[in-house]
Design brief:
binds magnesium ion, binds 3-hydroxy-3-methylglutaryl-coenzyme A, about 300 residues, 12 helices, 8 strands, alpha/beta, TIM Barrel
Length: about 300
Amino acid sequence: MSDSVRIIEVGPRDGLQNEKTPISVPDRIAFIERLIGAGLPIVEVGAFVSPKAVPQMVGSAEVLRGVSHLPGEFHVLVPNEKGYEASQAAGARVIAVFASASEGFSRANINCSVAESIERFKPVLARAKADGIKVRGYISCVLGCPFDGEVRPQAVVDVARALWDLGCYEISLGDTIGVGTPLKARDLMRAVAGEVPVQNLAMHFHDTYGQALANLYAGMGEGVRVIDSAAGGLGGCPYAPGATGNVATEDVVYMLEGMGIATGVDMEKLLAATNEVSRLLGRPPVSRVASALNAKKKR
Ligand code: HMG
Ligand code: MG
């Protein structure tokens, strides 16, 4: 497996969207600057969603404008045409639409059925294509739903196919509540890779049950080479009860480097970014690697 892996750092969006302590726009910008400085060139920085739905993402336009001078690719979430317009006014070049493989979560998260969400994305994708904007497609609840329970792989395959056919350049498969286990993750990647080229798949695993690294490893065995992760293991979805953070970027980098896969990430600088945002949030990082390295420093 000694080839390259692309890491999408989602801490400033997925990481901060579920935090009770509000982080100011300047602090969000400084966090992103540190992540870029640590060697993470692709960062999801915000979301153009309803401020009532996710108040933590208010100010995403200012955040995006505030990082536009930095070298990097910045992603933002867009749920509908209103969000698309706001993203374009702020200069977004890459956006992400987000669907669900389960009806229960779709309703809770974006207030519509799965089929309605795909319809809602059609004009967004059409406008993005005309404007030369790249669109990533997320699918939530690919290994289980907090409302509907088990999710059939075929349901994931169908949504992946629909997003791919609409023109998404990459499909990110979200284990939103971190319930998956490695063989299920492997089988899912295999099933989706039958419809969407494996090089266009990403793994977005939350670590609620401590399975994320094992699941990533299983997915890598199927050839998936794009990983979403959050510095310090921040994250969670306000509309997925019980969901905790994304797999920690530190943990992913440590695993990949240990496998001989160069990530280009400077662990010391990443740790500094994590420690600073943890200080603002008032609690230590949940990343095992960050905790181990912090403990080592104290010795
Ligand atoms: P709705 O209530 O059905 O929307 O919400 P609506 O069109 O009826 O509009 C209601 C109000 O929202 C109106 O304002 C609109 O203007 C406003 P009002 O008249 O009441 O003052 N509105 C907006 N405002 C700002 N930006 C917009 C926007 N659209 C409407 N884009 C909607 C539907 C999708 C908007 C709402 O449910 C929403 O914003 N949901 C987002 C939820 C969210 O952000 N969840 C977290 C991200 S997804 C995630 O974390 C999973 C992921 O990480 C992968 C994984 O882990 O699985 C990606
Ligand atoms: Mg997520």
